[in-house]
């Protein structure tokens, strides 16, 4: 697990992009939103936000953004079709409206949207895919769902028929035409002279090259078969097509490289009291990887030694207080938050170092993960919110669109948390 800690200045660096893969569930010093902003909301929405605030928390530096969104809700800005279109565009690259964690602003936006979206027909939520995905994700968060069911039937669970959704057509924007600046007559004349000189030079070089080629062909002709054997292109043969980018298309869980590893060495970070520095063997010829994880406050060092675990192995390496981390330890955080505890996700019995960990389902089991996740495409950040543990404590990814469950497993069995049910994985 890659985490970031400790001071407010380090957290600023994380938000600026210098720590690309923090374990969001471990960010320190989080506190509830201001009651002043929530008080502006009408009932029963105000009660829903207040009841869900234990899970929807945000650092004080992100508070202005949360206040701004809650004030938008309080002013009734989300009732018109044009505002929904704008909100859909804003949510297309994001999971939440503020920062990378759910805040009180998300609960407020969900409650404000509920009267409208609950009346939508399929054509309407098909035309707002990002907004539909966001609304469904927030309404299924445990704190929001529990509070909604206790407080008011006005926030009943909304179901979406996504199996019949049409494929999204993505069109590239046409290139912008550059405006030509006026050219003086003198410049035009000079350009014309240069072009004529270049044409004459090219013609002379071409004529010379053609003459040499003809002489060489007469002196030494090779059969076509010989040319082909030496790697020459066959007559009429099309040039090879350029391979598509391996991370093209929508983020998929199978793009994440999960493997079984074993901690072979562990110590506390020399410059951070909350961080461990581990050497984890993933069965690679290059030897164990150095991994930094923020588990000092949650798992004693004695319980970490010689542990088998599941690691995320294709994140971009990140420097953590001067130590570079080359993987992330997959952990389960209690549904009550980090105060409820954090556990290492356990691979099945008889697992071997380096075993592949994959997602059940024909679309994912035989897929090859990416060699490295592109931080700009936020593949892990998009997939991670749907990681959870089932009633059986088994680790799984729940497809946010189809609600299908895909357990996380090796060839020998399913990975699981030791005790947590309904936990988030990161």
From TrEMBL:
Q: Which CDD domains match?
A: GST_C_AaRS_like (cd10289), tRNA_bind_EMAP-II_like (cd02799)
Keywords of this entry: Cytoplasm, Protein biosynthesis, RNA-binding, tRNA-binding
List compositional bias (Basic and acidic residues) regions by residue number. Answer: 168-199, 209-223
Q: Where in the cell is it found?
A: Cytoplasm
Name a GO molecular-function annotation: tRNA binding
Decide whether keyword tRNA processing is in the record.
no
Which stretches does the entry tag as region Disordered?
166-251
* A Pfam family of this chain: Arc1p_N_like
Q: Domain named TRNA-binding: which ranges?
A: 252-358
Residue span(s) of domain GST C-terminal = 12-157
Q: Which InterPro entries match?
A: Arc1-like_N, Glutathione-S-Trfase_C-like, Glutathione-S-Trfase_C_sf, NA-bd_OB-fold, tRNA-bd_dom, Tyrosine-tRNA_ligase_regulator
Entry keyword annotation includes Thylakoid: no
Name the Gene3D superfamilies on file: 1.20.1050.10, Nucleic acid-binding proteins
Q: What processes does the entry annotate via GO biological process terms?
A: translation
- Which superkingdom is the protein from? Eukaryota
Q: Which GO terms describe its cellular component?
A: methionyl glutamyl tRNA synthetase complex
Family annotation (PROSITE patterns): GST_CTER (PS50405), TRBD (PS50886)
Task: Tell me the protein's name.
Answer: Nucleic acid-binding protein
């Amino acid at each position: 697990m890659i985490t970031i800690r400790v001071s407010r200045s380090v957290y600023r660096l994380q938000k600026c992009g210098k720590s690309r893969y923090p374990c969001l569930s471990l960010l320190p010093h989080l506190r509830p939103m201001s009651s002043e902003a929530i008080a502006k909301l009408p009932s029963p929405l105000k009660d829903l936000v207040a009841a869900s605030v234990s899970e929807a928390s945000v650092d004080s530096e992100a508070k202005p953004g949360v206040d701004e969104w809650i004030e938008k809700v309080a002013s009734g800005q989300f009732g018109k079709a044009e505002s929904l279109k704008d909100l859909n565009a804003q949510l297309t690259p994001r999971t939440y409206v503020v920062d990378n964690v759910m805040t009180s602003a998300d609960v407020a936006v969900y409650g404000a949207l509920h009267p409208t979206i609950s009346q939508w027909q399929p054509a309407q939520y098909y035309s707002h895919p990002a907004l539909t995905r966001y609304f469904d994700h927030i309404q299924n968060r445990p704190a929001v769902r529990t509070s909604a069911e206790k407080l008011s039937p006005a926030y009943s669970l909304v179901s979406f028929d996504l199996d019949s959704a049409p494929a999204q057509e993505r069109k590239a924007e046409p290139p912008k035409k550059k405006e030509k600046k006026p050219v003086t007559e003198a410049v035009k004349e000079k350009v014309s002279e240069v072009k004529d000189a270049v044409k004459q030079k090219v013609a002379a070089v071409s004529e010379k090259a053609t003459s040499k080629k003809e002489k060489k062909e007469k002196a030494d002709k090779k059969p076509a078969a010989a040319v082909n054997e030496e790697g020459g292109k066959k007559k009429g043969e099309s040039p090879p097509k350029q391979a598509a980018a391996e991370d093209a298309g929508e983020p998929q869980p199978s793009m994440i490289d999960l493997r079984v590893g074993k901690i072979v060495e562990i110590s506390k970070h020399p410059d951070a009291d909350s961080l461990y520095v581990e050497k984890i063997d993933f069965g690679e010829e290059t030897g164990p990887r150095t991994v930094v994880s923020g588990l000092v406050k949650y798992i004693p060092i004695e319980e970490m030694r010689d542990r088998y675990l599941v690691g995320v192995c294709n994140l971009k390496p990140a420097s953590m207080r001067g130590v570079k981390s080359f993987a992330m330890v997959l952990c389960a955080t209690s549904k009550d938050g980090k105060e409820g505890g954090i556990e290492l996700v356990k691979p099945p019995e008889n697992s071997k170092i380096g075993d592949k960990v994959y997602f059940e389902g024909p679309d994912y089991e035989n897929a090859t993960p990416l060699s490295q996740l592109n931080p700009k495409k936020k593949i892990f950040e998009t997939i991670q919110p749907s990681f959870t543990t089932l009633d059986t404590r088994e680790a799984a990814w729940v497809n946010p669109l189809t609600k299908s469950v895909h357990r996380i497993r090796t060839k020998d069995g399913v990975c699981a948390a030791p005790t947590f049910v309904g936990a988030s994985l990161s």
